[in-house]
Amino acid sequence: MNIIICAKVIPASSVTIEINPATKCMVRKGVPHELDPAAACALEEGLRLTEKHGGAVTVITMGIGDATIGIRNALAMGAANAIHILDDALAGSDALGTAKALAAAIKKESFDLVICAAESSDSYSGIVPGQLAQLLGLSPLTFAKEIAVEAKKITIKRQTESGYDLVEAEMPALVTVASGINEPRYPQLKGIMAAKKKEIKQWTAADLGLGPDQVGASGAKEKVLAIGRPAARKAGKVITDEGDGGKQVADFLAELKVI
Amino acid sequence: MDFNLTEEQLQIRDEIRRVCREFPDRYWREVDRRRDYPEAFVRKLTELGWLGALIPAEYGGTGLGITEASMILEEINRSGGNATVCHAQMYTMGTLLRHGSEEQKKRYLSKIATGELRLQAFGVTEPNAGSETTRIQTTAARKGNKYVVHGQKIFISRVLQSDLMLLLARTTPYDELEDKSRGLSVFIVDLREAQGKMEVKPLDIMINHHTNALFFDGLEVPAENLIGQEGMGFRYIIDGWNAERILIAAEAIGDGRWFTERAAKYAGERVVFSRPIGANQGIQFPIAQAYARIEAADLVRYHAATKFDRKESCGAEANMAKFLASEAAWEAANACLTTHGGYGFATEYDVERKFRETRLLTVAPVSNNLVLAYLAQHVLGMPKSY
After folding, report:
1. Nearest Cβ partner for A193 among B18, B19, B62
2. Best mutation site among A13, A14, A192, A197 for testing chain B: the one with the most B CBs within 10 Å?
3. Residues A54-95: tens digit of each pLDDT
4. Which of B22, B65, B222, B311 is the most exposed place for a label (fewest CB within 10 A)?
């Protein structure tokens, strides 16, 4: 069973995100990067499936050179292979451009299952997996809280507000995993050392047969018009308990129609 | 000259940081309060292979250098933890690795690498022989195919958290020796088989250090557990000193960074007389000075570690790194405590705990006075002063 994980590498959680006012894009170059925790959950799920059913996990990421550390991290966790789509021509790609590049790379591989995070932890658009499934002609199974594979059939528990739906599909398929599906493993120290010996294949847009009308800033159909900060939150209400604190809290909650 | 860490070293640093985040201040505070051994932390590090970093790959470890091992310990202390609880599992095996027989290495090292066996106790110090190791009095007398041990040790850490202990004992009486550095031997003691012949008395000390007094009353050690040649034990333990000093330096640097980061943060947040206390030079200069000294010590630490990993002589650098780093960390600890004022003494701020812990590093595993004595005599050529 061969599984492809689409794993985004994002600025580390310790980094204060900056937006370039000219491009309205996140500043990614020159800041520490890490494997997106959401992607780590997708990878963990892939590793567990291959540990149970055999096969190998291949990680694919599209990103700048700084993404290498996150790819090494994925390899250290146990991914067997890695592909880095790395090309300045891809800078400024919108979600669809990203999906096209990922789809083109995935088509070069033999696979049974593609697993993505439901959304990345930096830009949160959440639309790449759906576009990717469409481009690959795969059944998308979204927001999985649990994944089971039997022969060529995949079943997920799809998280809903009231519980979950059971969703089945024939493989090959594409699954997005909901946050909290698992607790990603820490790499073993030996895994970290072994990761440096694993090859990371690098592909450019041209290698994938993609031109400037499809990817990069020139190929982007989605334009960010403006970026602003969320409105400052109003000051909270402080309740001083002078014997009637409980009543005041209850009144406040009633006012909010919470109770 | 390149002062940058490699991609692999950066990854090691980032990963150990991630693991340490799972054990925040409150974990260490609670362990300290209860005088517990941080079992969950040590187990996690063991499972992930971090404590087998220095064991060669052929014996089941990762075969990393002292540089990388020192980074691991630094990050534990920088996170607010205390690497002394497990550092010995990393390096005590060095004596076995360098001087043990192939059979001994095969028997023990792979199990130490996986954590199946814990070897993190080394019985050297005695009530009447601290820094003067060649004066130890615990004896190991050969009786057929075993040695029988009598005597006493003190400040022997983690005995109750170990399966194996290395023991330095006298095999030739001091007065019969021409070369006083001979006559001592190193043994592997299987602590699981030592009951009844060895009493372990935990010592209550200033920090949560799991250290003990040991009393040997006819402890039998199989002759096959002798490491290397009889009488060469002192040379064998000296061989491990440089590695130990570099690793301790790194722990001190981790402490120093923790203190300066906490102090700077608090100084920026605490408002007195309508402005942050960090706006006062009386507060910020001691923190900045400690920071500069930690950075300087760190350069010597990496210099020493690099030379060690290149198998170059590094006694001077390793000793200087330990001296400079432990003194800088202590300076940072004082600056941090002063910055926090009364709150520095409150356990919930963790400053007092780290303050107690880092003080040890100026005294152990070697007193800084003896480091200076070494530098004066062996590096600067002055007369022996002790």
Report:
1. B62
2. A192
3. 999 999 999 999 999 999 999 999 999 999 999 999 999 999
4. B311
